[in-house]
Amino acid sequence: MQSRPYQIAFIQKAAQIIIAHLEESDFSVNDLAKALHLSREQTHRKLKKQTGLSSGKFIRYIRLLLAYSYLKSESQSVQQVAYRTGFNNPAYFNTCFKEEWQCTPGEIIRDQTLFPSADLPILKFYQIPEIKEVLTKVSIVIEPGFSQRPERKRILHRKTMFTLFTLFGLIALWLSRGAADQVKFELDNQHLAVIPFVNNTGDTSLQVVGEIASSWISSQINNLGNVKTVPFFTVRQYSHYVGILPDDIEDRPTFAEVVDAALMIQGQYFLRDDEIYFDAELLDARTLESIYHLPMVHGARDSVMNLVEEMRLKIAGLITSIEEVRSGKLTPPNYDAYEYYLKGLQELSLSISPAALHYFEKAVVAEPDFVMPHLYRIWFYHGGERDSLFNIIEALPRMTAYERNVFRHLYLRHEHRYADDLELCLEMLNDYPKDYYFNMMAAHEAKSQFMPRFAMQILSQMEDKVESEVGQLWHLYKVRNYSESLMALGEYQEAIEHLEKIPSQLYNPAIPELMIYCNIRLGMGAENIEKLIAEYDHEDTRQIADLFANAAYEYILMNQDEDAHHFINRSMNLMINCPEESGYNFDQIDLFFMAGQFDIVRTKLERIKQINEVDYWVYMSLLEAATGDDEKALEIYEKTLTQEYIPWRRNPLAYQPDYLKARVYALLGREETSIDLLQRALEKGQLYHHLDFDRDIFLTQIFEVPRFQKLVRPREHGVDVTIMK
Asked: From the centroid of its chain, how far is CA 555?
């Protein structure tokens, strides 16, 4: 059906008004309606009828169309374009842009050959003749096409992810960025309306309290995160629309459509025992579905403003953790406590530092029943102090079922009860089948307990979530666990095919490493491995040094010493020119040990003794065994390494001492004793790490022993993996 002339004029005028106010971040639907000399309801109805979009979405599409054009045609940063198109929060701009264009602003700047699909809703909107004509007049022309990726395989920068490679850093990011992998609760325009609280006191003199509470809360939580509040007077003006549902038989717009809100706070206040009570609830403004009923606050009648402020803090805490609350995973803390908690997580993602503990302690002081900072305090205490903390957490009254299971999960891992933890993760997936964290942990536990097929089955059910840094990290762990599971089954070609299917924009540090391992296992020579490494666009010399070391390590496992020494030299030449004089996963001590240059290893070990004494003694025991001195090698464990669990090198999970001693006995050629110790380590809960058991260069002398091969044979879920007779 053709548009009538007055319809064309209306659409074009609306678009022109938005373009004229493009840089004004506070330009709203209300402002657009005033400029059009219409009410909000009339503006909404006309735009909805002629474009299919709400007023808020119409404004957003115009902003993002111009943003795309500026990114393509002008030398401006993402931040500059964000401000130029009316987004005063670059992070929010990035989120909105990604949602509509299916790529980030940074990708557009870096790759000018990248074009959007013509099927995107925003481009279908652009193709409306009236819109296209208006944008063409301001030199905005957008041509859809097909994505063209660069031929070179660019991988995520290793340096930015290095501190997150520990399980601890992974958990920190999961909780700080939102672990919920349920259907995400989208806040289309990030607007929240606080409805005037209803006076149920029976005292008309208290009528003004409701409006004071609503206006104060609304003004104080505005711009909290990505949420903006609808101006209080706008809410009051259109509050008679509250209660109208979508598809109203009288074709009336809903309150959400009129004020352009996604969320709504409704509440009441009443008197009981001469105290005033405030009761509030967060609702989906479109469907009026209840999201969360806040705990009531109450106190003396003359402390009304203190009570309103307490309610504001609870609402602010709820808004900042909305996705986890909506899924039942989190009881919202007050805002101050949540802010301290987030600061602690930020510190924790960098290192396990006193600053992180400081913020967690402050969060607990601000709200003693806030569960998550208590959970993080576990990592900073040991022995009796940690046991006491476990008891404190277990008694917290506001722990959700989800938080209680996170607590159980961390407890089991601290106790090295990995088989029990696997079962817990599987139980969690019954209640939260799309929970990315527990899917990942279940798969990791299965792979680490000789169940690669079961790990792959779990991972196959997971959707990739790569919109953010944490999503890319999840993808890295998924790639590693799935590929290593295939490798454990000897399916190296299948692992390569799996890796080759990963889109180039999702390349991460695990992929080239795994490709090297698999191709060497399939017989690829050193020259072609060099070419394989050269295919990847590395930004970090230490990362390349690690890849050469990976190749050397694998050639040693294959008994191809000449090729191994070639890559040892290639890696060494890079490491000695790095400020850190090492890679990320390997250092010069590892390289010299692989090369058999034990005198140099001994010299370099002496230099690290004061820095990491445990690391020194474990490596010294291996060195003494490799040089045939069994007495000195074993004496180290009798006199020095007497801990129940021993951390070694860069592995985040400590080893059973029996596992490390098994390496010593293997190097000494005492095969049966070595296997006995490996068996005992498994019985005590030793995990199967990436370079352990059948990939451990310290155990190569027992690889061909049938009893060892039986020990590491893949098993199915349900088989006891810890007791191998």
From this structure: 35
Contacts of 611 (CB under 8 A, 6+ apart): none
Nearest to 512 by CA among 494, 529, 491: 529
- Architecture per CATH, domain 191-326, reads as 3-Layer(aba) Sandwich (3.40)
Count the alpha carbons within 13 Å of 587 in the hemisphere toward its beta carbon: 14
| Domain boundary assignment for the chain | 5-148, 191-326, 597-725
The architecture CATH gives domain 5-148: Orthogonal Bundle (1.10)
Burial code (b: 16+ CB inside 10 Å, e: under 16) for 579-607 equals: eeebbbbbbbbbbbbbbeeeeebbebbee
With 80 as the cut, is the pLDDT of residue 189 above it?
no
Cα-flanking dihedrals φ and ψ of residue 93, to 5°?
-60, -45
One-letter amino acid of 672: E
Look-up: residue for tokens 């548009």? 3
Q: How do beta strands 275-284 and 290-293 pair?
A: antiparallel
Residue 456 confidence (pLDDT): 94
**What are the tokens at 667?**
């190097």
pTM across the whole model: 0.61
- By C-alpha distance, which of 190, 100, 171 is closest to 142? 100
- The residue count of the chain comes to 725
Interhelix angle 304-320/335-350, rounded to 10 degrees, is 30
Given a contact cutoff of 8 angstroms between Cβ atoms, the answer to whether 234 and 219 are in contact is: no
Q: Are 192 and 221 in contact (CB under 8 A)?
A: yes
Using the Cα atoms of residue 595, residue 599, residue 603 and residue 608 in order, give the sign of their dihedral.
Answer: positive
pLDDT digits (tens, 9 = 90+) for 614-629: 999 999 999 999 999 9
**Spatial distance between the Cα atoms of 430 and 104, rounded to a whole number of angstroms:** 34
Would the pLDDT of 169 be above 70? Answer: no
DSSP, res 721? S
- When pLDDT is cut at 50, 70 and 90, the band that residue 464 belongs to is low
